[in-house]
């Protein structure tokens, strides 16, 4: 690696971070001591690792009531950009050392938090679902060095931001609903973190292969320092030492193999991001960090149907994992269809692997859809309608299939729409959450 920056100094050498850690342990001990539960009842739900407290149990939380209050007053706090800017300002004013736990640019973090707020608000009437989401998030946040005390800090900062931003216009009942929502989410996150204590907060992984495939794409293989459990179709966040504190998600391209190595497909979408560092400035022997596997877009429980996979660009990574898994566990008689979209034939960057899969899987039908092919969406005179998103409609009847979609967010959304129009029910159209902004999920 060439542009290496020191990274240990960011947290380990920070005296205040050390103090915060000790403070967190003190707070945690205090919260876990039975005598203090009453006194700290309102924070207890952040830290309690064992059985759920009444405050944190999904069944005990009237999320629908809070949802109604929050939604009715959303106009006062949306768009969230200003609220979130105030929130981080308030947090860093009170606790300057926390700034060092975040990357230099807060842009991605702010967008991420905005999406999290939207998710919570939209799903608050289904506390079980929110709780499951938050426990997964809490497990993942261990890699960032997030401690239980930080959730309390976050809640205080949110309260201050709501006050600064919406001030007198926001009733106390609405502010309380926001705080209850965040407290409920934090309780799930702390539980998720505690339940994951037996696994590493993150894995280190040595790059064993780095192949440039065309101008912007690289295929990487990495060997994690400890066994890395995942299910095909899941993704992991990666961190390059060139950009400490910045993590970006990529799918594991392939089912877990005997050698324990993982494959990632990375497209560089612009300068200076994680993808740029991984494509341009990373080589064999470099060490990356890997967050725990995430995502629920897997084949589990879906082996009773034929499978339809629609993938675009490096979304092929997810498709490859799902199809390898299907090949390994396919019940007799079941088949799969893959529609793979690319800008041009040169952008089919993993063509030999696809040909190998095709030749050993007679039950797999593959349709390649090129933007610059005949009638393609990018071809001369292309009107945008002959692309991978509506290719299934042109190739048969996929009723009764379970569909998996991966690729650029706009492609995923459009494909899901076309599949619905073909009559596939929503629960049989599977994909990772698509951000409601123009920022890609697997961003720079
Ligand atoms: N690297 C990874 O492991 C994974 C990446 N992804 C996502 O896949 C995307 C891949 O991007 P690229 O390889 O650059 O894809 P790309 O820009 O090369 O496009 C690939 C295909 O998607 C179609 N497409 C692109 N934009 C579209 C739109 N607005 N509407 C309809 N169809 C559209 C194109 O026609 C093409 O067939 C990224 O956004 C990434 O977030 C998804 C899963 C895994």
Describe the model:
- The structure is a single chain.
- A 6-stranded antiparallel β-sheet has the order 4-3-6-1-2-5. A 5-stranded parallel β-sheet has the order 9-8-7-10-11, with helices on both faces.
- The chain has helices spanning 15-32, 41-47, 63-72, 80-94, 107-123, 127-141, 148-166, 172-195, 274-280, 316-329, 351-360, 391-394, 409-421; strands at residues 203-213, 217-224, 235-239, 248-251, 262-267, 287-290, 307-312, 336-342, 364-370, 402-406, 429-430.
- It contains 13 helices and 11 strands.
- It folds into 3 domains: 8-195, Orthogonal Bundle (Globin-like), CATH 1.10.490.10; 203-290, Translation factors (Elongation Factor Tu (Ef-tu), domain 3); 307-430, Nucleotide-binding domain of ferredoxin-NADP reductase (FNR) module (Rossmann fold), CATH 3.40.50.80.
- With 444 residues, the chain is an alpha/beta fold.
- Strand 1 (203-213) and strand 2 (217-224) form a beta hairpin.
- The chain binds 1,4-dihydronicotinamide adenine dinucleotide.
- Belongs to the globin family. In the C-terminal section; belongs to the flavoprotein pyridine nucleotide cytochrome reductase family.
- This is nitric oxide dioxygenase.
- Residues 61-194 form the Globin domain.
- It comes from Streptomyces thermolilacinus SPC6.
């Amino acid at each position: 690696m060439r542009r290496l920056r020191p990274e240990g100094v960011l947290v380990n050498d920070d005296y205040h971070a050390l103090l915060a850690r000790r403070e967190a342990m003190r707070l945690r001990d205090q919260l876990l001591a039975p005598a203090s539960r009453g006194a700290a009842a309102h924070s207890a739900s952040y830290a309690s690792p064992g059985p759920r407290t009444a405050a944190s149990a999904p069944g005990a939380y009237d999320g629908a009531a809070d949802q109604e209050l929050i939604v009715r007053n959303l106009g006062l706090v949306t768009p969230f950009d200003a609220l979130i800017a105030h929130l981080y300002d308030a947090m860093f004013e009170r606790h300057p050392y926390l700034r060092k736990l975040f990357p230099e640019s807060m842009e991605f973090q702010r967008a991420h938090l905005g999406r999290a707020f939207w998710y919570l608000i939209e799903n608050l009437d289904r506390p079980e679902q929110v709780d499951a989401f938050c426990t997964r998030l809490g497990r993942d946040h261990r890699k960032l060095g997030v401690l239980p005390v930080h959730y309390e800090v976050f809640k205080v900062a949110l309260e201050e931001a709501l006050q600064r931003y919406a001030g007198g216009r926001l009733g106390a009942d609405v502010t309380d609903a926001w705080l209850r929502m965040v407290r409920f989410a934090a309780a799930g996150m702390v539980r998720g973190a505690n339940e994951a204590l037996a696994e590493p907060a993150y894995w280190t992984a040595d790059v064993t292969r780095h192949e440039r495939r065309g101008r912007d794409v690289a295929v990487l293989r990495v060997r994690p320092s400890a066994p890395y459990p995942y299910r095909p179709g899941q993704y992991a966040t990666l961190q390059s030492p060139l950009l400490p504190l910045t993590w970006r998600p990529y799918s594991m391209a392939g089912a877990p193999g005997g050698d324990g190595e993982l494959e990632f497909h990375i497209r560089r979408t612009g300068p200076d991001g994680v993808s740029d560092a991984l494509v341009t400035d990373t080589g064999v022997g470099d060490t990356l960090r890997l967050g725990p596997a995430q995502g629920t877009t897997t084949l589990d429980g879906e082996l009773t149907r034929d499978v339809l996979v629609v993938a675009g660009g490096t979304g092929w990574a997810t498709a490859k994992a799902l199809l390898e898994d299907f090949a390994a566990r396919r019940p007799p008689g079941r088949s799969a269809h893959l529609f793979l979209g690319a800008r041009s034939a040169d952008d089919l960057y993993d063509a030999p692997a696809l040909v190998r899969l095709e030749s050993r899987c007679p039950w797999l039908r593959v349709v390649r859809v090129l933007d610059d092919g005949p009638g393609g969406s990018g071809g001369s005179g292309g009107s945008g309608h002959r692309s991978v998103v509506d290719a299934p409609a042109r190739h048969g009847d996929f009723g009764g299939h379970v569909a998996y979609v991966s690729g650029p967010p706009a492609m995923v959304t459009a494909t899901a729409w076309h599949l619905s129009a073909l009559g596939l029910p929503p629960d049989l159209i599977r994909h990772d959450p698509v951000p409601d902004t123009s920022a890609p999920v697997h961003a720079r």
